[in-house]
Amino acid sequence: MSRQKTLGKFGEDCAAKFLEANGYTIVARNFRIRSAEIDIVALRDGVLAFVEVKARSNIRHGLPAEAVNLRKQQKIIAAAEVFLQDETFCDCACRFDVIEVFMDGERVEEIHHIENAFEVTREV
Amino acid sequence: MYSRTFGAATQGVDGLIISVEVDSANGMPAFDIVGLPSTAVRESKERVRTAIKNSGLRSRSEKITINLAPASVKKESAGLDLPIAVGLLAAQGRLRPNVCEEFLFVAELSLEGLLRPATGVLPIAITARAEGFKKLIVAPENINEALLVDGLEVFAPKSLIELVDFLDGEKDLELATPVPVDEPEGFMELVDDFADVQGQHSAKRALEIAAAGGHNVLMVGVPGSGKTMLAKRMSSILPELTREEALEVTKIYSVAGKLPQGSGLVTKRPFQNPNHDASTAAIIGGGSTPTPGQVTLAHNGVLFLDELPEFKKSTLEALREPLEERQITISRVNGTLTFPSSMILICAMNPCPCGWYGDKEHTCRCSDADIKRYMRRLSGPLLDRIDIQIRVPRVKYDELSSKRRNESSAVIRQRVEAARRIQTQRLAPYKLFCNAQMTHALIQKLCVLEPAAENLLKTVFETKKLSARSYDRIIKVGRTIADLAGGGETISSSNIAEAVKFRSDFELNI
User: Rounded to a whole number, what is the distance in Å from the CA of B61 to chain A's nearest CA?
Assistant: First the structure.
């Protein structure tokens, strides 16, 4: 496994623990459709959160959340639409979150949860 | 959940009530505004959300759809921020929907959650009353404007949260009362007065007649003879705006966003003085959604075109419709709108490119062809619409250095107002108020010439080969001169003689 992939996997584990500690139930992890993936799907108070996790060991290339650009957002939205086909969840309120995991070497320095980070936009 | 609130936009110089429908439901989080919003309205999404958040209120992230009805009209007003915000709070259960439907909301929102003034509040308030609204919510800066309309309860909360508390019934808002307008301090306004103009008696007389009868004027004269000075003093001798006229002017200023902040009724007659480089759209009005131009901003006032032949020919020709119809119809992709444009047109020009043609003491350097080319820029039909055409000669030294006090504008204005009163009485049954507005049929009916005057006009008509329109215009000016003289019902031959003098003078040189 490459260094980036290890870091990514580690970040997702940290984010999942963080969510559970904050009262969320993890509904799914790494939900994949053909072209896209949702890192974590979590549920709390009847609201479904589609969470994209970004881990960074330094911020030389910008903040982690900045990496979730419009293209990435659209992929997540497409995957979420498929996820919501499931009849258990089709009537849920939902939102899109980003969790930033800042690393200092092996140690987690900070976890930053951005609720409602983006939403569906239509081309004008 | 679904809710409905009412906001407003403007269309031409009229208000248009917009029904803002908000639906907020579970689903993929989104915020869509449909119903032909302009960019300013589409951007209200960001202002509304941030304002709600910074007011300490919460809006849930749901699938939010906002519809602005009627859907076929393009909505330009940022004043739709407030009805959208209130509608959203109602749709998400924060406010009681049935309470919100009683009000008309017109204000922009700041990110902080404060109410900002919107344009076009006066026409919107007029439409609101006509459509049966009782309560109007505006920003504090718009109070004076909204209160110009009787029979509306106006509330002006400072912020969104104040409004929400009021709609909840938790806190009361006082009915808005007129706000005193601060005059800028330490600023002496120099009023242009006719007393400052030395000499130029015939030009002054011409402007007095123009002001009395609402006639258009063309002044031709050498450089520095005082044409511009005279024109700028025109508004000082026009009668005070009536309340009705003032409302019309305020409406136009309000829609054009030219109303000084916090002010109410415009009480000064407009004086518009566009540069000769102005585009046709700037003068006549235009834009993909038509906005008023200079002719409309000069409504009930004066439009002054200095250096007339320097204006683009197409621009000048476009003036024909507003001059004749006293309104201008503009057709564009987004609709056809009619704006009022009842103004007095005052034009100034030199007699030739170098400026000295016809002056006794200077030599004109222009060739015949130069002068012809210069004059050709003014078409016959345009000149035909200008009732009074005069020459403004160079002022003599004795006149200029004279210490004699001239007649002040206030004195001239009294005569003008007296003449206008006579006209208003005569023309009231036809819903007109000055002689220049009379149609051919009305002239036949209301302007009785004495036999001597009739003979004189016949001679002039035949020798000068006047057009039918010129004939009407001479009688109209004659009517005004008679009104200024005290208003016998018939027009005397000396009245006609003076009217002819103001007319033929320039025509001979073309």
Answer: 7
> pTM of the entire structure?
0.83
| Element (DSSP H or E) covering residue B205 | helix B201-213
Chain A residues inside the 8 Å CB shell of B61:
95, 116, 119
Answer yes or no: do A116 and B62 touch at CB < 8 A. no
Nearest Cα residue to B14 out of B118, B107, B120: B120
On whether any CB of chain B is under 8 Å from the CB of A80, the answer is yes
- Cβ pair A81:B60 closer than 8 A: no
Kindly determine whether residue B29 and residue A94, on different chains, have CB atoms separated by under 8 Å. yes
Beta-strand ranges (E) seen in B251-334 are: 271-272, 285-286, 291-292, 302-305, 327-332
Q: What is the CATH number of the domain that holds A48?
A: 3.40.1350.10
Distance of CA B121 to the CA centre of its chain: 16
Domain count, chain A: 1
**Residue A120 gets which letter from DSSP?**
B
Owning domain of residue A105: 3-118
Contacts of B30 in chain A (CB under 8 A): 119-122
Q: Is B43 helix (H, G, I), strand (E, B) or coil?
A: coil
How buried is B324 (Cβ within 10 angstroms: 0-12 exposed, 13-18 middle, 19+ buried)? Answer: exposed
CA distance B31 to chain A (A): 8
- A92 CA to chain B: closest CA distance, Å? 7
CA–CA gap between residue B45 and residue B238 (Å, rounded)? 47
- Tens of pLDDT along chain B (510 residues) come to 899 999 999 988 899 999 999 999 888 888 999 998 888 888 999 999 999 999 999 888 888 999 999 988 888 888 999 999 999 999 999 999 888 899 999 999 999 999 999 999 999 999 999 999 999 999 999 999 999 999 899 999 999 999 999 999 888 888 888 888 766 554 555 578 888 888 888 899 999 999 999 999 999 988 888 888 899 899 889 998 888 889 999 999 998 888 887 778 888 889 999 999 999 999 999 887 788 999 999 999 999 999 999 999 999 999 999 988 889 999 887 778 899 999 999 999 998 888 888 888 888 888 989 888 888 888 888 888 888 988 888 888 887 887 777 888 889 999 999 999 999 888 888 888 888 888 889 898 888 899 999 999 999 888 888 878 788 888 999 999 999 988 678 899 999 999 888 875 555 444
Cα B61 from Cα A48, distance rounded (Å): 12
Q: Which of residues 93-112 of A touch B (CB under 8 A)?
A: 93-96
Task: Inspect the interface and report whether the beta carbons of A119 and B26 lie closer than 8 Å.
Answer: no
Q: Which of B63, B64, B107, B54 is nearest to B83 (CA)?
A: B107
- Pair (B149, B199) in one structural domain: no
Q: Which helix (H) or strand (E) holds A83?
A: helix A70-83
- Least CA distance to A76: which residue of chain B? B28
Q: Do A93 and B42 touch (CB under 8 A)?
A: no
Asked whether residue A110 is domain-assigned, the answer is yes
Q: Do B29 and A77 touch (CB under 8 A)?
A: no
Which site among B24, B28, B50 would you substitute to test the A interface, given the most A Cβ atoms closer than 10 Å to its Cβ? B28
By DSSP bridging, strand B14-25 and strand B63-69 are antiparallel
Q: Is A122 on the interface with B (CB under 8 A)?
A: yes
Q: Which residue do the tokens 């007389």 mark?
A: B205
ipTM: 0.79
In a domain, B312, yes or no: yes
Given a contact cutoff of 8 angstroms between Cβ atoms, the answer to whether B438 and B432 are in contact is: yes
Q: What angle do CA B53, B59, B64 make, to 5 degrees?
A: 130
Please check whether residues B293 and B389 belong to one and the same domain. yes
